[in-house]
Amino acid sequence: MRTPNSAEPAAHEHRLWWTPGTRGRGVLFESGLVCTWPEGDATHRQWAEQVPSRPVMFFYIRSDGRVRIPERHAEHAPALIAALAAADRRLAPFAPPSHFRPASHPPERPACPPGAAGGRSHGPHRSVDRAWDARAAERLARIQRRY
User: Fold this and answer.
1) How far is it, in rounded angstroms, from Cα 60 to Cα 27?
2) CB of 108 within 8 A of CB of 35?
3) What is the pLDDT of residue 96?
4) CA distance 79 to 77
5) How far is CA 8 from each of CA 2, 3, 78, 105, rounded to the nearest angstrom?
6) Contact (Cβ atoms closer than 8 angstroms) between residue 104 and residue 126
7) How far apart are CA 131 and CA 110, in angstroms?
8) Digitized pLDDT (tens) for each residue of the chain, 147 residues in all
9) How far apart are CA 67 and CA 73, in angstroms?
10) What's the Cα-to-Cα distance from 75 to each of 58, 69, 121, rounded to whole Å?
11) Distance of CA 44 to CAs 29, 38, 50, Å?
12) What is the DSSP string of the chain?
């Protein structure tokens, strides 16, 4: 993934049509161009097709202006935060603390409580870590036969 090049001037002026107090969407392009709009107006792909530069990141804007940097862009989070904040001061981009975990350490998994059988944890909800077990293939085949 290429990050936006702030040394190059954006090919176009930023298109900032999102208004605070409403939910929105946006696209950050390689040229540094940022486009934002109210959530119902268009999809990310529709906007990406209208600009000759390649999109770097699609994002959602919360009504208070916060923009969460997706996990898949964690490596480039500081550059993306800087590009969005420079384009529109009303935006408050942030990366969750999990983005800044050292790359050499694998993510920690929650400990499964003792006696958790069948992938169940403390409550009636299935544990994400235990969702695929020895009988999962059988359950999947049963579901596929229904449809």
Assistant:
1) 9
2) no
3) 81
4) 6
5) 13, 12, 18, 35
6) no
7) 14
8) 555 555 444 445 899 999 999 999 999 999 999 999 999 889 999 989 999 999 999 999 999 999 999 888 888 999 999 999 999 999 999 988 775 655 555 555 555 555 555 444 444 554 444 455 667 677 777 777 765
9) 13
10) 16, 10, 32
11) 12, 11, 10
12) -PPP-TTSPPSS--EE---TTS-EEEEEETTS-EEEEETTT--HHHHHHHSSSPEEEEEEE-TTSEEEPPGGGGGGHHHHHHHHHHH-TT-EEE--GGGGS-TTSPPPPPPPPTT--TTB-SSSSBPGGGSS-TTHHHHHHHHHHH-
Round to whole Å and give the CA distance between 68 and 2. 19
Q: How far apart are CA 59 and CA 73, in angstroms?
A: 11
Q: What is the pTM of this model?
A: 0.61
Q: Locate 48 and state its tokens.
A: 């990406």
Amino acid, single-letter form, for residue 116: A
Task: Name 27's Cβ contacts closer than 8 Å, sequence gap at least 6.
Answer: 34, 35, 44, 47, 48, 51, 55, 57, 58, 59
- The DSSP line for 16-48 is E---TTS-EEEEEETTS-EEEEETTT--HHHHH
